[in-house]
UniProtKB/TrEMBL annotation:
<dbReference type="InterPro" id="IPR036770">
    <property type="entry name" value="Ankyrin_rpt-contain_sf"/>
</dbReference>
<protein>
    <submittedName>
        <fullName>Uncharacterized protein LOC103343633</fullName>
    </submittedName>
</protein>
<dbReference type="InterPro" id="IPR002110">
    <property type="entry name" value="Ankyrin_rpt"/>
</dbReference>
<dbReference type="Pfam" id="PF12796">
    <property type="entry name" value="Ank_2"/>
</dbReference>
<dbReference type="Pfam" id="PF14223">
    <property type="entry name" value="Retrotran_gag_2"/>
</dbReference>
Length: 313
């Protein structure tokens, strides 16, 4: 289906692309200062003054329209009668967000079926017995989902199994990705599970820089999904040189999310290390300075303003 010229996405939402679609739309809404109406509890609307409610209503309509024109036929039918951007977003997440893979009886007759079954149940003792007999199974892929046991345990948030599997793995085993380029670390970061994130990074620092097919690193995924405990940790262990412009758009993207997430101290710190990041394009072609709203700048003094903002004590 053709994408509208003013759509926020390169593909309309369907049953196969929710993860990427939600990142695209959220990033667009953040850039347009519209994401807060998607996050806001509807009960809060009634407490606002008439002027504030009018402003909210306009933003809600714009955000809802953005979501609507970014949907395919099936998705559109689910939110056709919805007047709230938040309800529309939640409805689409409920219907299209991938569910953790749960094997059913008879799904797999391969050698590694006992391992995947044990991991899905959270039974580490059985999984360990199998891995003792078949150590190579630790990097085997499920024949249907094509994901490893570690990826499955991460999705299901079986923290104890994740910790045990990581201990048995070589560093390169943690670099295995799914079909969309997501490592198990990317999943843990997106879910905000700091315990699993620390466990994996403790084994391998290289996985910090592995990007998804959408060119997103684990710290950017955590930022997009407002998992700030994870962001703080990943930022503390990420080499600063990996965020410089010559290494790609990752530092610029991180500054943008710091600013829109109101993590101004972290934004200042990174900009002080490399001021040119403010004018460097991120993975979506956006420069971080655009995160500053026009109302924050006196006319004709945008550059002077952010320079002062950075160096103010």
């Amino acid at each position: 289906m053709a994408v509208s010229a003013d759509a926020a996405v390169v593909e309309l939402l369907d049953s196969s692309n929710y993860v990427d679609w939600s990142v695209w739309v959220k990033t667009y809404l953040l850039a347009q200062d519209l994401w807060d109406v998607v996050e806001q509890d509807e009960e809060e609307e009634e407490e606002e003054s008439d002027d504030n409610f009018k402003a909210w209503r306009e933003k809600n309509a714009t955000a809802l329209h953005t979501i609507q024109i970014s949907c395919g036929r099936e998705a559109s039918s689910l939110i056709r009668n919805t007047s709230s951007a938040k309800r529309a977003w939640d409805t689409l997440a409920e219907n299209f967000k991938p569910k953790p893979f749960l094997p059913s009886a008879g799904y797999d007759k391969s050698l590694y079926k006992p391992l995947f079954d044990a991991v899905s149940r959270g039974d580490w003792n059985e999984a360990k017995e199998f891995l003792t007999l078949h150590p190579d199974a630790i990097r085997a892929r499920h024949p249907y989902s094509t994901n490893t046991a570690l990826y499955m345990a991460t999705e299901l948030e079986h923290e104890h199994i994740v910790e045990e599997l990581v201990q048995l793995m070589f560093e390169e085993d943690l670099e295995i990705t799914d079909n969309d380029g997501w490592t198990a670390l990317a999943v843990a970061a997106q879910r905000g599970n700091i315990k699993m994130v620390e466990c994996m990074v403790g084994k391998s620092k290289k996985i910090l820089g592995i990007t998804t097919n959408q060119n997103l690193t684990p710290i950017l995924l955590a930022s997009i999904y407002d998992q700030w405990d994870v962001v703080h940790y990943l930022y503390s262990v990420t080499p600063i040189e990996d965020l410089m412009p010559e290494k790609g758009p990752y530092g610029a993207g991180l500054i943008y999310y710091f600013i829109t997430g109101r993590k101004f101290g972290m934004a200042r710190e990174l900009i002080r290390c490399c001021p040119q990041l403010v004018l460097t394009k991120d993975h979506y072609g956006v420069i971080p300075i655009e995160a500053f709203r026009p109302s924050a700048f006196p006319s004709g003094t945008r550059l002077k303003f952010w320079q002062q903002w950075i160096y103010d004590s």
